[in-house]
Amino acid sequence: LSHLGECPWEEDLTYAESVCDQINLKVEAVSLQQEYMDSVVEYTIQDAKAGRTPNPDVMCNSRVKFGVFLDRFGEDFSRVASGHYARTRTNHRSGTTELVSSADEWKDQTYFLAHLKQSQVENTLFPIGGYTKARVRELANEYNLPNKARKDSQGICFLGKIKFDDFLEHRLGRQPGLFLEYETGLVLGKHRGFWFYTLGQRKGLGLSGGPWYVVSKNAAENIVYISGKYHEMDKSRTAFSVESLSWISGTSPTREECAALRVKIRHGPRTIQCRLVLENDTGYVELEEKESGLAPGQFAAFYLGDVCLGSGVISADSGLEHAPKASPGASSKRLQAHYIA
Questions:
Q1: Which of 46, 92, 125, 261 is most deeply packed, by most CB within 10 A?
Q2: Contacts of 162 (CB under 8 A, 6+ apart)
């Protein structure tokens, strides 16, 4: 798996061993590389190839960290601890364990844990979930931990220092296609392949005369629709469909609860008041605020108060319904587009 980049696992292990030496704990490393490749990397490739926006972090948590690992070693321990910024508490009425937002709304990681099942949450501890990141840093300094000054991890872990586009090119290659202006159907340039772009993307398009934003994709025809008016009201959506709904308690929310939910479309502190209409394991989400960049494949995490109830996957690009076909022989005279083959 060396082609995936210089994953810093050896550095991670060194820090873990140093911390555990300080408190006289034994460390045993377990390799789950192949399981990660099969469950997370392949999912990422297939979703990108289908024109969707994958989230490897969500899948890593549900399939590997709290999946394969718990299946293989969970029975040997009464609890498994994780360093995620999240909390759990018991719902005494239902007897289930709830996934609760952390004390630090900016570092909260429940979005990445929203696809977990009850069996994965009920035996998990999140020791730092009740602290802010600043307080965790203070405690690390107070205890003089070897990793007290280590920088926060960022990016997709299996890539190491490799850029995501380079990884996709290595696995999927290039497939030149057209950039079309969303409003007119004018050809504005050529792109390397639709899988390199996601809705809301501005950087890396290789076009002058912008700023340009990706607003829709047609994977079947390898067309990427862009617009210079991304922030206008008609590019925002007030509703979207979700599939593959998964509820942490094992039970879907009641109709009353569905009318009082908040949804998080991506990692960060922002949630949007919404109403969820359920139909089996699919649903329709009505937002109280307009939202841009709703991409198929993206996870939507649902909250009732500070409790993360579960998640679903955005199932369709609603903007594609109104996207124009390419104007035959038309190209924009307003700009010079370049494409590096």
A1: 261
A2: 4, 5
Strand-pairing partners, residue 276, are 285
83 burial via Cβ count (<10 Å: 0-12, 13-18, 19+): exposed
60 is catalytic: yes
For 266-310, write each residue's pLDDT tens digit: 999 999 999 999 998 899 999 999 888 789 999 999 999 999 999
DSSP summary character for residue 63: I
Task: Sort strands 177-181 and 87-91 into parallel, antiparallel or unpaired.
Answer: unpaired
Question: pTM for the complete prediction?
Answer: 0.88
Spans of the chain, pLDDT less than 70: 1-8, 153-161, 232-236, 319, 321-322, 326-341
pLDDT of residue 223: 95
Q: Which residue has tokens 């007119």?
A: 184
Output the DSSP codes for 316-330.
--GGGGGPPPPPTT-
Q: E strands, 60-212, where?
A: 80-81, 87-91, 96-100, 124-125, 177-181, 187-191
Q: What are the residues whose beta carbons fall under 8 Å from the beta carbon of 331, sequence distance 6 or more?
A: 186, 187, 188
Q: Which of 60, 258, 274, 308 does the annotation list as catalytic?
A: 60
- Report DSSP state, residue 67: I
Distance separating alpha carbons of residues 328 and 90, to the nearest angstrom: 61
157 is an active site residue:
yes
